[in-house]
Write a sequence for this structure.
């Protein structure tokens, strides 16, 4: 099994996998540029049965160890007299409770976001660069599930348990496919199966499984467009402490321009992939057009 990289090795890796300027100095879409019309058309041909699987958790209004900032749901009008019911939702999408897409402006490294834009481009006004509305046309491509518990022959990964490049290779082989350019890559850790069996826990204290920093080079070589996970992609809390933050978040969002889906629910997808005998499908997602926003709640869909 691989050993953890040192801080200096991770910093050197950031330099090796850097995508700044790859699509021009003004680019704000990052690795979404890997998804071509031809890639979308090929992905659409994967639909055979028409089955749809949602990959999203409910937007919970109940506070709990995973959800310190629940959704606020208020009824503006309900019941007679009148002709309609009206309500209001307030959602803080970041964190470890809601399925959401991180914008490339979400994380900074040494004062910069993706493509070298200054962190000062984000302020009380929101984000002037790399905001979530760069995805306003939606994201549709081939989706691929790498099911790590299935590869390891376990029910789930434990909190703080790392995933290494050899695990990704093994899951690639299990699915009889190869993660390739423009794919939306989804990593299952079994988090929600563990939650169903053992109950909720505080991921900020007890942790979550995730990708070891050594996986960043693997992701770069495969030229993925989007990375998603049923946890937060990173091992949490970060094994590198405050100095490095979350290296997968930094190495994807900032360094490579790869948007991240956090807190997906991949249990039904895992079962569907096993049932159909394939781990590839049409992936579709339409984030909200939140101008200057740093994230959007999402309901990603897999179509078989």
């Amino acid at each position: 099994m691989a050993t953890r990289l040192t801080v200096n090795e991770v910093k050197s890796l950031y330099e090796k996998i850097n995508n700044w300027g790859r699509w021009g100095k003004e680019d704000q879409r990052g690795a979404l540029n890997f998804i071509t019309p031809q890639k979308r058309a090929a992905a659409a041909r994967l639909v055979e049965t028409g089955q749809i699987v949602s990959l999203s958790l409910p937007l919970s209004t109940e506070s709990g160890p995973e959800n310190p900032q629940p959704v606020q749901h208020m009824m503006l009008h309900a019941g007679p007299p009148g002709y309609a019911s009206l309500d209001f939702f307030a959602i803080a999408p970041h964190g470890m409770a809601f399925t959401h897409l991180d914008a490339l402006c979400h994380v900074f490294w040494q004062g910069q976001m993706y493509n070298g834009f200054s962190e000062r481009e984000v302020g009380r006004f929101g984000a002037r660069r790399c905001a979530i509305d760069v995805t306003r046309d939606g994201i549709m491509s081939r989706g691929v599930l790498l099911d790590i518990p299935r590869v390891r022959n376990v029910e789930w990964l434990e909190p703080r348990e790392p995933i290494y490049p050899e695990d990704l290779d093994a899951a690639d082989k299990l699915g009889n496919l190869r993660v390739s350019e423009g794919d939306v890559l989804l990593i299952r850790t079994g988090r929600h199966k563990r939650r169903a069996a053992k109950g909720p826990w505080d991921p900020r204290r007890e942790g979550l499984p995730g990708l070891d920093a050594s996986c960043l080079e693997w992701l770069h070589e495969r030229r993925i467009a989007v990375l998603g996970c049923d946890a937060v992609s990173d091992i949490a809390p970060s094994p590198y402490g405050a100095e490095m933050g979350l290296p997968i978040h930094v190495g994807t969002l900032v360094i490579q321009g790869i948007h991240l889906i956090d807190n997906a629910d991949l249990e039904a997808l895992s079962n569907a992939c096993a049932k159909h005998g394939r781990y590839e499908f049409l992936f579709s997602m339409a984030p909200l057009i939140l101008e200057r926003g740093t994230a959007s709640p999402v309901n990603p869909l897999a179509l078989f």
The mean pLDDT is 96. The longest strand covers residues 139-147. Residues 7-16 form the longest helix (10 residues). The chain has nine helices and 15 strands.
